[in-house]
Amino acid sequence: MIDYIRGVITYINPEYVVIENQGMGYQVFTPNPYVFSVDNEERVIYTYQYVREDILALYGFNSREQKELFMKLISVSGIGPKGALAILASGNPSQVVQAIEEENEKFLVKFPGVGKKTARQMILDLKGKLHDIVPDAVPSLFADMDEQEVKSQSSEALDEAIEALKVLGYAEREINKVVPALMQQSMTTDQYIKEALKRLLK
To answer: What is the CATH number of the domain that holds 114?
Structure first.
């Protein structure tokens, strides 16, 4: 079992990042790949190795708490890694934990692939078992740029965010409802994803 990988991010797309360690590039699926950036900065990604007869994949997280929540979510019948990533992508584990503790099915069914039966199962399996999960905030701010550069980067960032939302399982019609509000703002891809998820989960 690979507990974590320390290395440099060399590639990012809407589904995964590639982290290079000693000449090897590891493909790591993450809830929101755009919280990472391609630079020469060494970083740690906490990983979970998922093995089934037809799949071998590495899932990666910013913190041990996020990784623990992922492991607890995939232990629930009806939630696979993709569903767990979509839940974690909201960037607010405390909201998810609170919904489970308060038996708030209405909130939980807003995630892609979570129906009433799965929401009930989540509450049944996880209520009272998530006290150690703490949300982690990753601030992602623009450096000084001229206005034109910010506009062109935020347009590209919005496109990337839309792709990432599709990968998480949100339907195009759902995404289209929140896009107009997102277009009013200049943000990074990571911030667009978080803002879109906040609106999709209302």
So the answer is: 1.10.150.20
**DSSP conformation class of 77:** T
Same domain for 68 and 122: yes
Give the DSSP H or E segment for 25.
Answer: strand 24-29
Please answer whether residues 125 and 75 qualify as being in contact, where contact means their C-beta atoms are separated by less than 8 angstroms.
Answer: yes
Domain endpoint, select from 43, 61, 79: 61
- pTM of the prediction? 0.71
pLDDT tens column, 49-85: 999 888 899 999 988 888 999 999 999 999 999 999 9
Span 161-172, pLDDT tens digits: 999 999 999 998
SS (H, E, C) 135-174: CCCCCCCCCCCCHHHHHHHHHHHHHHHHHHHHHCCCCHHH
What DSSP character marks residue 138? -
Domain containing 87 equals 64-126
Number of domains in the chain: 3
Do 55 and 68 belong together in one domain? no
DSSP state letters, 79-127: --HHHHHHHHTTS-HHHHHHHHHTT-HHHHTTSTT--HHHHHHHHHHHT
